[in-house]
């Protein structure tokens, strides 16, 4: 793929880490399809990219719905070209004591965080196989290293994403497709600030336990992602690349 424009799909690209990844990949020369349940937000990210000279489209899509993923990928192929980069960033988060987790909430976490990643991979990988090249980066969570109180459903789903990453890496390593995961640590996003405002966590307290003394920035995750989808990262697959300021080693 060296010297050829790549087409990338970034899920959950309307804000936070997904937006930063979309902007970075576009700056590096990729045509970017921004997918998000928030269609207006996805289009805003795409507009931001195009205003900076990049090429992008925004698509409203619920990745937990297989038909919506299939329709979105078809639209991406028609508008931007065959996708050979997939960043599975979209996710749902929740803070509930284990005994208070409802069956519906459990299924929601699995549907968005795990099944959504499965859907996107299974729809896009055949197109990568046709091209003989592909890069998949799954955004999981550093909470999978040690667990987190009141997030059993979220941690279980994201742990499944890590497992899926390793399996796909092995299965498609010989086809020019790499599959890696980035489990972000403590990153300053709208979601994190919302959780702080609701008392689910304390940003100030978390900063005191961060070896680098600050929250991560969405751009920190985007930089690691940009490397993993590059030609230079062809010998890296099946790995969990922690971007967490030293909180987990």
Provide a short characterization of the protein structure.
This protein is 47% helix and 13% strand.
Mind explaining what this structure looks like?
The chain has one domain: NAD(P)-binding Rossmann-like Domain (Rossmann fold, 3-Layer(aba) Sandwich). 47% of the residues lie in helices and 13% in strands. The chain has helices spanning 16-27, 39-51, 66-79, 103-131, 143-146, 152-172, 190-197, 203-208, 218-228, and strands spanning 7-11, 31-36, 55-60, 85-88, 134-139, 177-182. It has a six-stranded parallel β-sheet with strand order 3-2-1-4-5-6, with helices on both faces. Strand 2 (31-36), helix 2 (39-51) and strand 3 (55-60) form a beta-alpha-beta unit. It is globular. The model has no long low-confidence stretch (mean pLDDT 94).
Overall pLDDT? 94
- Please tell me how large the radius of gyration is: 17 Å
Count of DSSP helices? 9
Beta-strand level of the residues, as a percent range?
A: 5-15%
Q: Quaternary arrangement of the chains shown? A: single chain
The low-pLDDT segments are none
| SSE series | EHEHEHEHEHHEHHH
How many domain regions?
A: 1
* Helicity, as a percent range: 40-55%
Label the overall shape. Answer: globular
Strand segment count: 6
Estimated structural class = alpha/beta
CATH superfamily descriptor: NAD(P)-binding Rossmann-like Domain
CATH first level: which class? Alpha Beta
Descriptive terms for the model:
globular, six-stranded parallel sheet, 9 helices, Rossmann fold, alpha/beta, 249 residues, 6 strands, single chain
């Amino acid at each position: 793929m060296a010297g050829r424009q790549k087409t990338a799909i970034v899920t959950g690209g309307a804000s936070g880490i997904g937006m930063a990844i979309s902007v970075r990949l576009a700056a590096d020369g990729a045509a970017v399809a921004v997918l998000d349940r928030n269609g207006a937000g996805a289009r805003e990210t795409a507009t931001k990219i195009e205003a900076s000279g990049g090429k992008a489209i925004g698509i409203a899509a619920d990745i937990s719905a297989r038909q919506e993923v299939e329709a979105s990928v078809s639209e991406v192929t028609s508008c931007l070209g065959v996708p050979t980069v997939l960043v599975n960033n979209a996710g749902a988060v929740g803070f509930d004591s284990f005994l208070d987790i409802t069956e519906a909430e459990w299924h929601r976490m699995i549907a968005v965080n795990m099944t959504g990643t499965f859907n996107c991979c299974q729809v896009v990988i055949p197109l990568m196989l046709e091209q003989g090249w592909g890069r998949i980066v799954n955004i999981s969570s550093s909470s999978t290293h040690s667990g987190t109180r009141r997030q059993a459903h979220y941690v279980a789903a994201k742990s499944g994403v890590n497992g899926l990453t390793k399996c796909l890496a092995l299965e498609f390593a010989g086809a020019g497709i790499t599959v890696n995961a980035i489990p972000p640590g403590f990153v300053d996003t709208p979601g994190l600030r919302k959780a702080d405002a609701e008392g689910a966590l304390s940003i100030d307290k978390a900063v005191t336990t961060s070896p680098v003394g600050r929250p991560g920035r969405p751009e920190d995750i985007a930089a690691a992602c940009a490397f993993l989808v590059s030609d230079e990262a062809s010998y890296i697959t099946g790995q969990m690349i922690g971007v967490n300021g030293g909180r987990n080693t």
